[in-house]
Design a protein that fits this description.
Elements lengths: L2 E2 L3 H9 L19 H11 L7 H8 L6 H15 L10 H10 L2 H6 L4 H4 L1 H14 L2 E2 L5 H11 L1 H39 L1
Helix pairs in contact: 1-8, 2-4, 2-5, 8-9
Amino acid sequence: MADAGPPLERLTRRLSECPSEFLAEPLEQGVGEVDVAAVVGDLLAALGGEPLDAARAQRLLGTGGAARRNRLGLVLVSAWLLHDECFRGRGLGAAAEEFLAAGLAAPARAVRFSEFVSDADRREELARLALRALGLAPEGETPAQAVDRLAALDSVETARTAAQSKAHAQRLRSVMDAMRKKAAEEAAARVCRE
């Protein structure tokens, strides 16, 4: 069962106030502005976690790929969120590290990281994802309510459903085009017989 967490409004407001430094380009191979591993290391220290060693930093940063920069941007925004004092002194360092290292890949593939600051639904989604990863439910919600609300906001599921709908619409267009072509051919054949 999830422990009681902070009020959701506190977290969404914090995200809406995310400083521009956390929205800057992650530093990679001398390009960018923000050292993601250093930011996460500071966060883990504030949450009472273990110092970030090289192997764990590499896991956090991940490997290359098109979605990597967006995921690293989302790690920065999430680090800002988790640095709130309501998370300190609760022994959440390991859970926070796991969330930042492994819990953001799917949302980062579905949504541009800056939308988790600029869009109200995405702010709520990120706050709820973080709370779930930390084993917390928003203040005033049962764990079941928290799960249901997160499911309603799930950008990954929304993107999957949109892709399925697009594929279905394309199949439907193909079938309709084939039916029109066949009807035209049959009409032309009838005209030729008459």
